[in-house]
């Protein structure tokens, strides 16, 4: 299980759920700059999309290894943030490359060998734009992800593929459901499967300003998380990760004991890209 290699004939899928509620207007620091959390998260998702394109690039061009959907959830409801292609409401990585998107120059801090930091200017395509308004209809977003994942896995050509990955990024609690309902929706996502394994659900909770509780990423057990009801809920909603993720997580958590849970609690925005990179690690299985 979870050993399928990714090819153009057997691609995989990523579904990114992005909290765009009013609390995402809170300021944070990212890349050496002060900005809204909504802006930082949009920037990080754009970086991730760029990274997936990079992983798909070969001498003969971009190979269609991935189908991608990005859904934002806020007071406006649940909205697709990328135009759907011809792949069951996903956009293929080749279509993403061709999609018109403005390039914005960003000043970012890069850490050099030896630990010294330097500021660099990078041009980043802006497929996703920031928004922060209203409530947090997370349950509706999870339900939409379950439908997307189910439709993708039902396509005959995807039956032997590495299963889809769902990445839920949020800074707060759902406004549209009880904990029991959220657990049920998360269970619906995790029950969808290809022949290679069940869909994997990651939940990444972003820290607020002035947060005193330390970040906990990919815990081995719930006792590693703070004794907070919501942290416990996110733990139960998230998938237990298969062994193919162990080495990547152990590189940042030496001495930890797998299996790991696909959850992060009180994560600084600065660490979000690293979590998403691990979450999309299946993309390294391309051949």
TrEMBL record:
Domain VWFA as annotated: residue spans: 13-248
InterPro entries to which the protein is assigned, alphabetical: VWF_A, vWFA_dom_sf
Membrane-spanning ranges: none
Protein name according to UniProt: VWFA domain-containing protein
Organism field: Alistipes inops
């Amino acid at each position: 299980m979870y050993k399928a290699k990714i090819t153009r004939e057997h691609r995989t899928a990523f579904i990114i759920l992005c909290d765009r509620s009013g609390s995402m207007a809170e300021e944070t620091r990212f890349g050496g700059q002060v900005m809204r959390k909504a802006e930082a998260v949009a920037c990080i998702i754009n970086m991730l999309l760029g990274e997936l394109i990079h992983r798909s690039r070969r001498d003969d061009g971009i190979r269609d290894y991935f189908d991608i959907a990005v859904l934002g959830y806020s007071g406006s409801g649940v909205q697709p943030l990328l135009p759907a292609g011809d792949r069951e409401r996903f956009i293929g990585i080749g279509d993403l490359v061709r999609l018109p998107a403005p390039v914005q120059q960003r000043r970012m801090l890069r850490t050099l060998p030896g630990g010294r930091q330097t500021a660099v200017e990078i041009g980043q395509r802006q497929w996703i734009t920031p928004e922060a308004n209203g409530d947090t209809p997370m349950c509706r977003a999870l339900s939409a992800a379950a439908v997307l994942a189910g439709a993708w896995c039902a396509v005959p050509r995807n039956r032997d593929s590495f299963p889809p990955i769902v990445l839920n990024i949020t800074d707060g609690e759902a406004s549209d459901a009880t904990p029991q309902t959220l657990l049920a929706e998360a269970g619906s996502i995790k029950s969808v499967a290809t022949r290679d394994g069940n869909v994997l659900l990651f939940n990444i909770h972003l820290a607020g300003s002035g947060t005193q509780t330390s970040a906990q990423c990919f815990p081995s057990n719930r006792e590693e998380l703070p004794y907070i009801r919501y942290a416990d809920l996110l733990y139960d909603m998230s998938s237990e990760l298969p062994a193919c993720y162990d080495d990547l997580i152990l590189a940042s958590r030496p001495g930890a004991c797998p299996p790991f849970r696909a959850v992060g609690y009180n994560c600084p925005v600065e660490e979000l890209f690293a979590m998403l990179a691990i979450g999309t690690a299946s993309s390294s299985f391309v051949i």
